[in-house]
Amino acid sequence: MLRRQLLHFGAFTLGGLPVSLVHAQGGAQKKFVVVLLRGAVDGLSVVAPFGEREYAASRPQIALPPPGADDGLIRLDSLFGLHPALAPLKRHWDGGQLAFVHASGSPDPTRSHFDAQDYFESGTPGRKSTPDGWMNRLLMALPGEPSPTRAISQGSTPPRIFAGTASVASLGLGPDAMQRRAIDDPQLQAGLARLYAHDPQLGSTLRDTTEGRGEMARSMAAGDAPAMDPSADAGAPSARSFAADARRLGTLIRKDPHTQLAFTAVGGWDSHVNQGAGKGQLANRLASLGAGLDALASGLGDSLKDTVIVVASEFGRTLRQNGNGGTDHGRGNVMWLLGGPVAGGQVLGEWPGLDRAALADGRDLAVRTDFRQVLAPLLQRHLGLTEAALATVFPQGPQTWRYAERLLRG
């Protein structure tokens, strides 16, 4: 069983080894974090187009009131407003560190949670045969020296996005994420080293496992880590527990100078019933998510100035509310960008409008920006990928990358 665990996605799990911090702090590393909202969050409530007449007309019970009304939207511009439950993030918008790309998503028309998440994580929409995830390919393509903790996956199971040959460190959820594990025992490590001495693959994975666990534990030893539709979620925790885990992840990224990539997922967004508006089910989850993203930024501390956080979901939800006061599986959604390098304070994207003729299949916000058209410029300009390296990360990507000159500062 241990052999299978070591080989599964090349990942290893963090334990809380009581070792003092010994890393020498070098130059600032450019960092990149992806947060996947599993279950298809309603982007038309996250960043609501209150300036469109069809918005309120299509959602008589769940449309967000306009800015200035009770439980109303937070004005972003003359067309869009931010859900009031996300008020903790407004300071990042005002500070020029938060932006959105609306009417974005996958070019594949599937409304299956499983397929759409798979396409986002593989980076090859419409192709199910892709064996690895785009963040594992990114890890292989990054310039600079590799490290056992260069990439961190937070969660209880290895995600599809990090599937591949490169080893990825895995940080568990909750306070137990820092607990010591059996693999931390030096005698067990020595025994496994002898056992796998003649197996290059297992030997390499074991070395990454033990070195990475020790490295992350040393980074967290300074003591300021906080102790604090099921199938649609794919095992991702709900937003309620996100804040403490997000702060822990941000703290680890800040303290480990080798960490550049991180991934985490939050579930609970499949809002078919009783979605609510300014208050209610969705508002409660967005409040927890907003607090969590703010906690992630706080955990990153000074490293936020060198970090880009991308928040995305597998697809959006229908424009019109259904008979149960919720929304069904749709198409276009909104991507979030947060961090110091982000050219914030703007809603980007080609907005198609909500007229019936503009809707996908007569019911959904159309996808006008392929999600890879947002990600690729970030990988090039922020992480320094060459054109050739980018082609390995997104081998079937669009021919042009939109908004490249407007996503980041400088």
TrEMBL record:
InterPro entries recorded: DUF1501 (IPR010869)
Pfam families tied to this protein: DUF1501
Region feature (Disordered): 203-239
Protein name: DUF1501 domain-containing protein
